[in-house]
Write a structure and sequence with these properties.
With 419 residues, this protein is of the alpha+beta class. The chain has 2 domains: 262 residues, no CATH class; 116 residues. The chain is 44% helix and 23% strand. Strands 1-2-4-3-5 form a 5-stranded mixed beta sheet, covered by helices on one side. Strands 8, 9, 10, 11 and 12 form a 5-stranded antiparallel beta sheet that branches. A hairpin with a 2-residue loop joins strand 9 and strand 10. This is Peptidase M56 domain-containing protein.
């Protein structure tokens, strides 16, 4: 993938993930009230689903040797490019800045995780299968991505009653059984990749809150008569100010009051949870399909023979409906586009070339625009492969009191080497 292609993919995934996060933030309260905390937590699956959908190949669009006219509606913004526009060097600097941000964010998470691990002191195994640390802050907790384990504080046997210890162990076991540690690792990875998106960092806090509420409900489903003891165990557990990125722990950032109040609510019935699961599945499938369908189509160009160029031209006359023409051409071959508006005939006689000066990666469109057979402009447009540029001209003639307007947006993509 080219530098420009990488940045374009990053933009598309950022838009898709942001839309998914906003949808979940808007619906999580409704889902929790109607179907329970476990369903609200499951709704976060919409975020990775939309990201995967964007990364899937777009719907194929056959490239035709002759113009094929059709109405279109762009679903994602394109970056205009011209001879005086962004260069490959600029794109490379943006990519380098993004990579530095990814590394810096990853190091920050690693430092926080390492700081917590070192603060535990010596961790020894217990007879009950759990592990006991020399400290109390942030414990009990489930830790470890590859070899997960439950770590309890040094005063675990003193601070909690026998019933409370059983509930605490069940809570952390539920985190392990449902893969919450790996999901937290995935969230940390997404925050590294999209470090520049504050919405994702904001969503991470609510994701962890829904995770803890869902775990509470799973524990109550297995120990329905232990609500009071469970609440007392919460009160006895110290609340840490900043959770580490890759653990599941009782001292989460979720308000303790809300967790205790949730214990008073009756558990949702199986039918309600089933209905909620169906709603989340429908939401995930719909969101994933919408993200996939909104992708700009570039498959046709990727499958062209080496040396050919895929051209997508969108022509709009006098602010009317846009028309798109897609076709395949060879460097130096002549291209002819024609259309009419308000009684006038327009024609674009153009040639596509590869390379401009010392920039062999630039595709150049040299065009002659004619109105009723008379040349009105001879523009020259240069873009990087896969990017789009726009040509606009205005004539002295007026239609309904406005100057005639000609707009041609062109996206040119060179076939990949070796295809």
């Amino acid at each position: 993938m080219t530098v420009a292609g990488t940045l374009r993919t990053l933009l598309e995934t950022t838009l898709a993930s942001s839309a998914a996060v906003l949808a979940v933030l808007a619906l999580r309260g409704v889902l929790r009230a109607g179907f329970g905390a476990r369903i609200a937590y499951a709704a976060w699956s919409l975020v990775p689903a939309t990201l995967l959908a964007v990364l899937l190949p777009a719907a194929s669009e056959e490239a035709a040797p002759a113009p094929v006219l059709a109405f279109i509606a762009e679903a994602l913004p394109r970056t205009p490019a011209s001879e005086g526009g962004p260069t490959l060097d600029t794109a490379a600097w943006w990519l380098a800045a993004w990579l530095m941000g990814v590394v810096a964010t990853g190091l920050w998470f690693a430092a926080r995780q390492r700081g917590f691990s070192r603060a535990l002191g010596h961790v020894r195994p217990r007879d009950d299968g759990m592990h006991q640390a020399e400290s109390v802050a942030g414990l009990p907790a489930a830790v470890g991505l590859w070899r997960p384990r439950i770590v309890v504080p040094v005063d675990f046997d003193v601070r909690y009653s026998e019933e409370e210890r059983v509930l605490l162990r069940e809570h952390e076991h539920q985190h392990l059984a449902h893969g919450d540690l790996r999901l937290n690792g995935l969230m940390a990875l997404l925050r590294c990749v999209f470090w520049f998106n504050p919405l994702l960092h904001f969503a991470a806090r609510h994701f962890r809150q829904d995770q803890e509420l869902a775990c509470d409900q799973r524990v109550m489903a297995r120990h329905p008569a232990s609500r009071r003891a469970y609440g007392e165990a919460m009160l006895k557990t110290q609340l840490a100010m900043q959770p580490w990125p890759l653990g599941c722990h009782w001292n989460s950032s979720h308000p303790l009051k809300e967790r205790i109040l949730m214990l008073k609510h009756p558990l949702p019935s199986f039918r309600r949870r089933l209905s909620g699961s169906a709603c989340v599945l429908a939401l995930t499938l719909t969101g994933g399909y919408a993200a996939w369908a909104a992708q700009p189509n570039e498959d046709a160009a990727a499958q062209l023979p080496a040396g050919s160029i895929h051209v997508k031209a969108v022509l709009r006359l006098n602010g009317g409906e846009p028309r798109t023409t897609t076709f395949v051409t060879e460097p130096g071959a002549s291209i002819l586009l024609t259309d009419s508006a308000d009684g006038h005939e327009w024609a674009v006689d153009a040639t596509v070339k590869q390379g401009m000066g010392n920039r062999p990666d630039v595709l150049v469109l040299e065009a002659s625009i004619k109105r009723d057979g008379q040349v009105v402009a001879k523009p020259r447009l240069g873009v990087l492969s896969g990017q789009s540029g726009t040509i606009r001209t205005n004539s002295d003639e007026h239609v309904d009191g406005k100057p005639e307007a000609f707009e041609l947006q062109v996206t040119m993509t060179a076939a990949e080497a070796g295809t």
